[in-house]
Write a structure and sequence with these properties.
Elements: H1 37-40, E1 45-46, H2 96-99, H3 102-106, E2 108-115, E3 130-139, E4 143-146, E5 154-161, E6 167-176, E7 181-185, E8 209-214, E9 223-237, E10 242-249, E11 253-254, E12 261-263, E13 269-276, E14 286-290, H4 291-304, E15 315-318, H5 323-328, E16 338-343, E17 358-362, E18 365-366, E19 372-374, E20 380-382, H6 384-388, E21 395-402, E22 405-412, E23 431-434, E24 437-441, H7 444-451, H8 455-458, H9 461-469, E25 480-485, E26 500-505, E27 508-509, H10 513-521, E28 527-532, E29 537-541, H11 542-555, H12 564-567
């Protein structure tokens, strides 16, 4: 293919006067969040083409054949265009199209973050600190938005404006792990001088042009990239391990532009660049957090003074596309919905909903047999979108079909917590040590620390099964394991116990790590007996085990046998 083949969209009438460079980001070590985040922890960005300055007097040429050149004169030369009369023209008119972009670009900042991640395998210490750079942008109220993964496990965050040589210390106001958005502010008044906040626009339509601005790898100055909206649907947010509304754009991706704004052709922000698809069979696929998700995050913070998260309906459901299945469930030909497979026992809806109920509608919107609802003209979307528009604590009305009878319930929505959480949201990991046995609660970052980014293939099958399918039976339930055994004379023969679940202690079930630590510390029996999975048993003499713990801690330079959160 020739180099002069024109890409989709209008052909630039005026070349940009400045070469658009990109900025490099310091590559961090593997992250401790979600599996796919290993490939894009070091921020992603969308590819670049020239910024087009459009004369507002002349309509923009759409797709199709290129505009014909002016006819030749008798001497074979092109007729030059007539020069505008300086007296008749407004000197600012020619730059009107550009003026819409300049304030928005000045509002884009570079984010410098120093991270200190917890060491989940050795939970009493942290890993070596590292630095990264990403993008962000100024919004109203002296606030800055960026991605949550850009400031995860931060110890220091600094911001630098376009064209400035000064880095300003920033304060993190809120981190939305599920939606991958973070809100920052700067106390120094000088930072806010001459900066106009970005304004948000409506959700774009398919094939609408988007321009992403940020500081990707490849240079130090601001970079502008462009593409079109190629898909709008419920996407998997890698960092948050959730599914929310997202935009897919057809642009190449580079590291460093996470948190950068995506503008429409009117100069308003329609999203935040946050992740990309890296696959041998896919090219130029980038993802943008759309304005409904962004505004939900902002309003949640303004309403509650903190980020409370996105609510979820604590159910698992099955499609009802099979006609025999619908008939057996007592559904009429004009009824549509999805079958509830099981309900989270800790969710409030478990008090009114039952397994095998047919969920017909949510807040008056009918649900189809495939679990979708009407979205826009010619579009449908998963009904979880309706739930994500709500806030934690809101009430919703659902209709279900139970034994051929339609029932209505008012349900109070809440955030969903898993048995094996995807994040610990900035908190240090919990641990408890006795006689060299290191006990901890399992989380996704812990599995990644133990088994690497391919933990979904390398971790024990039982742990993976619990991660994917197990539901908590009580709000404070945790999956407690023996992480490792620090070798000492007291624990001879137990050295090979690694990542094995603790089921019971002295015949009593283990609910969570704090419950286990309390039972061991208050134990007056002669022996400490731990019932493990695979029918294993570990037995230690109580007095000897507790006495040996201090020597083991000193040998391994461990400051305490218990993490701080278990001491309270």
């Amino acid at each position: 293919m020739g180099d002069n083949k024109r890409k989709r969209g209008g052909k630039p009438k005026t070349p940009t006067p400045e070469t658009l460079a990109t900025t490099s980001a310091s590559p961090p070590p593997p992250p401790t969040t979600t599996s796919a985040a290993n490939d894009d922890e070091d921020d992603v960005v969308f590819s670049v083409s020239n910024v087009e300055i459009i004369d507002p007097k002349s309509p923009r040429r759409g797709r199709g054949r290129p505009k014909k050149l002016p006819k030749l004169s008798e001497n074979g030369s092109h007729h030059p265009p007539a020069a505008p009369d300086p007296e008749d023209s407004d000197p600012g008119t020619a730059w009107e199209g550009c003026a819409r972009v300049v304030p928005s670009m000045d509002a884009v900042v570079k984010v410098f973050c120093t991270h200190t991640e917890p060491n989940f395998s050795l939970p009493w210490q942290r890993k070596r600190q590292f630095s990264s750079s990403s993008s962000g942008f100024v919004i109203g109220g002296r606030r800055v938005l960026t991605n949550a993964h850009s400031v995860e496990h931060y110890t220091q965050v600094k911001l630098k404006k376009r064209g400035s040589d000064t880095k300003y210390l920033a304060t993190v106001l809120a981190i939305g792990t599920e939606c991958d958005i973070a809100m920052l502010t700067v106390d120094d008044d000088e930072f806010w001088e001459g900066v106009l906040p970005v304004e948000f626009g409506e959700l774009p339509a398919l094939q609408d042009a988007v321009t992403v601005v940020g500081y990707p790898i490849g240079g130090d100055t601001i970079s502008v990239t462009s593409g079109v909206v190629s898909r709008i649907e419920i996407l998997s947010y890698v960092h948050g391990s959730t599914e929310l509304l997202g935009l897919q754009i057809d642009a190449a991706i580079n590291s460093g532009n996470s948190g950068g704004p995506a503008f429409n052709d009117k100069g308003t922000c329609v999203g935040i660049a946050f992740q990309s698809l890296k696959h041998e069979d896919a090219e130029n696929i980038g993802y943008v957090i759309p304005t409904p998700v962004i505004m939900h995050f902002i309003k949640d913070y303004e309403k509650n003074g903190a980020y409370t998260g996105f609510p979820f309906l604590g159910i698992e459901w099955q499609k009802m596309e099979n006609p025999d299945l619908r008939t057996s469930m007592g559904m009429k030909p004009d009824q549509k919905g999805v079958r509830i497979r099981r309900i989270d026992p800790t969710a409030l809806e478990s008090q009114v909903l039952k397994p095998s109920d047919i969920l017909l509608s949510f807040d008056g919107v009918n649900i189809a047999n495939d679990g979708t609802v009407p979205f826009r003209h010619g579009e449908r979307i998963g009904f979880s979108y309706l739930i994500s528009q709500k806030y934690t604590g809101d009430n919703s009305k659902v209709k279900v079909l139970r034994n051929s009878e339609i029932l209505s319930f008012d349900i109070k929505l809440a955030s969903h917590k898993r048995l094996i959480p995807s994040h610990i949201k900035g908190r240090p990991p919990s641990y408890y040590i006795v006689a060299g046995f290191v006990f901890t609660a399992v989380s996704v970052p812990y599995l990644r620390s133990e088994y690497g980014k391919d933990y979904e293939f390398e971790a024990p099958v039982k742990l993976l099964d619990k991660m994917l399918h197990s539901l908590r039976q009580s709000p404070d339930e945790q999956l407690v394991v023996v992480s490792q055994v620090l070798v000492a004379d007291i624990n001879i023969g137990y050295e090979d116990i690694v990542n094995t679940q603790v089921l019971a202690f002295n015949g009593k079930p283990v609910k969570n790590l704090k419950n286990l630590a309390s039972m061991v510390e208050n134990c007056d029996d002669e022996f400490l007996k731990f019932d493990l999975e695979y029918q294993q048993v570990a037995v230690l003499q109580t007095k000897t085990a507790k006495a040996a713990t201090l020597d083991i801690l000193a040998t391994h330079c461990i400051p305490s046998a218990t993490s701080d959160d278990l001491k309270t």
